[in-house]
Automatic annotation (TrEMBL):
Family recorded in the similarity comment: Belongs to the PhoU family.
Function per UniProt: Plays a role in the regulation of phosphate uptake.
Organism, scientific name: Methylocystis iwaonis
Domain PhoU: 20-108, 124-209
Subunit architecture: Homodimer.
Database matches in PANTHER family: PHOSPHATE-SPECIFIC TRANSPORT SYSTEM ACCESSORY PROTEIN PHOU
Keywords assigned by UniProt, alphabetized: Cytoplasm, Phosphate transport, Transport
Subcellular location: Cytoplasm
Protein name: Phosphate-specific transport system accessory protein PhoU
InterPro entries noted in UniProt: PhoU (IPR028366), PhoU-like_sf (IPR038078), PhoU_dom (IPR026022)
Length: 239
């Protein structure tokens, strides 16, 4: 970050970065707790995840207002302008990640009374591991202004898409085996889609980091699933 003669300018930009980091920490915790709640059908934990989303909404509004005020007061150029734009973009993506984690918690509340098919959760746990790692790497790339790490996150998004396709087929099999599984597995399908969407928003963060560091935009087309990845070749959707 550039040092400015007006030190309050530096503090404005540093404040944006700190609040992005706080948002990232809240979103990571929400995602981890939402998946714990789903795996253990823990109603109380699921309710806490739903309640914690309000903090993300507040932080996003604060970051947007602060970034707009900084642009209006300082009229930043080059890297400083990109800092403000990146803060607005990334806060929006983190807020959506929180919404999607909240959706998983809400699905948990709907199926908590149905203790069936724990093996159906296994694929979702694998998706969560990839999504959580990707999110951590993207947030680290932002904190360190690490272009290469951001590009790696962008490349690895295809793995999560491929795994979602595999989870879809597994859940479909469970539903065909026993119609009593249909309601339970349908909720899990929505959870799978939520995790895939979290991967999309994480990739958006990575793209913004590359833009922030280099001033260049990533290609519109994201890479397809790599050969050998479970479920590769499916029709998983991209943002």
């Amino acid at each position: 970050m550039t040092d400015h003669t007006v030190k309050s300018y530096d503090r404005d930009l540093e404040s944006l970065g700190r609040r992005i980091s706080e948002m990232g920490g809240v979103a990571e915790k929400m995602l981890a707790e939402a998946m714990d709640a789903l795996s253990n059908l823990d109603v109380e934990l699921a309710k806490r995840v739903v309640a914690s989303d309000a903090r993300l909404d507040t932080l996003q509004r604060e970051i947007e207002e602060s970034a707009v005020m900084t642009i209006a007061r300082r009229q930043p150029l080059a890297i400083d302008l990109r800092e403000c734009i990146a803060a607005i973009r990334i806060s929006g993506d983190i807020e959506r990640i929180g919404d999607l984690a909240k959706n998983i918690a809400k699905r948990t509340l709907k199926i908590a009374s149905e203790a069936r098919l724990p093996r159906a959760i296994v694929g979702l746990k694998s998706m969560h591991e990839i999504a959580a790692t990707q999110l951590k790497d993207a947030l680290d790339a932002y904190a360190l202004r690490d272009e290469e790490r951001a590009r790696t996150v962008w490349m690895n998004d295809a793995d999560l898409d491929a795994l979602e396709d595999s989870v879809f087929r597994d859940l479909l099999t469970f539903m065909m085996e026993d119609p009593r599984n249909i309601s339970f597995c349908t909720h899990l399908l929505f959870c799978s889609k939520n995790l895939e969407r979290i991967g999309d928003h994480t990739t958006n963060i990575a793209e913004t980091v590359v833009y922030l560091v280099t001033g260049e935009s990533m290609p519109l087309e994201r890479p397809k699933a790599r050969p050998g990845v479970l479920g590769a070749g499916g029709d998983a959707s991209h943002e």
